[in-house]
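Shipment paperwork, digital attachment
Item: protein structure file
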Amino acid sequence: MKYKINQRRYTGSKAKLADWIMGLIKEKCSGKVFADVFAGTAVIAAEAIKNFNEVIINDFLYSNNVIYKAFFGHGKYDEGKLIKIIKKYNKINQDELEDNYFSKNFGGKYFDKNISKTIGYIRNDIEKNKNKLTNREYYILLATLIYSIDKIANTVGHYDAYIKKEPLEKKLELKLIETIPSKKILIYKKDTNLLAKNIKADVVYIDPPYNSRQYSRFYHLLETLIKWDQPKLYGTALKPEPENTSDYCKTRAFSAFKNLIENLDCKHIVVSYNNTYNSKSNSSRNKIKLEQIKEVMEEKGKTEIYKKNHSFFNSGKTEFPNHQEWLFITKVYDN
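Attachment content:
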């Protein structure tokens, strides 16, 4: 069995809502070009590929960008060759491995010590043999590593912290990802507000972060693993210096959102919003209020709002009673 694109633990994932969201988009929107500009897990983009001629995918995390290139990229790859490499990795005797950057920093915390040595060895081996791989093969192996370690991480689904107990000694078994044949697809790793000024689409789907929790910090371990620049790490959670921080997690979130909407060149805008703005947790409380989104969207075009009860995946202990997902669908006024 291979890993499907929706088989990730990811804060705010729309995996369980993808059918509902795309069903409404197909019913209420029209056109040939779809843009998912805060793509995250890319489960919405994966559905869009089935229904649109061209899909634009964007996210500013390095790890997510690699995943998109692995699942959707157009480059050639030899599956038989990749299977042989995976089998070799799965036969590694972790007791014979020496400590490496990954195990020295993350071993005994996010992963069992021996597992960490294996992860670091595999990542280093992929990089060392990069010239023997096509670009697509390289990305597929990296995405395979991400999906495989996600299943055994000593976390609640993100890497903002690890569970404060000795990690279980689990076996790391790599499985290839299941690539998704795509038509015309454009993959970006850009600030969404800057990208908006340079793309044109019929339908733009927007699902930004709404609270103060920076995704680049939540998934710092994956960012470090993929970039493999082996930075100096700080604090109990072992994070590098901050980078790729989003205005949508700061006090200027509403200003950023308003600017984005004003600069979009499209026929329809679809905005996902969850009602965690009522959360008791300051870090989980939304930076943009429901009324603010409604105001901006109604200025842009005729707006309809849809709601669905939804058990929110937040990866932590914060309670969200009566949680709902809201979907704003706006038909943009003619200029």
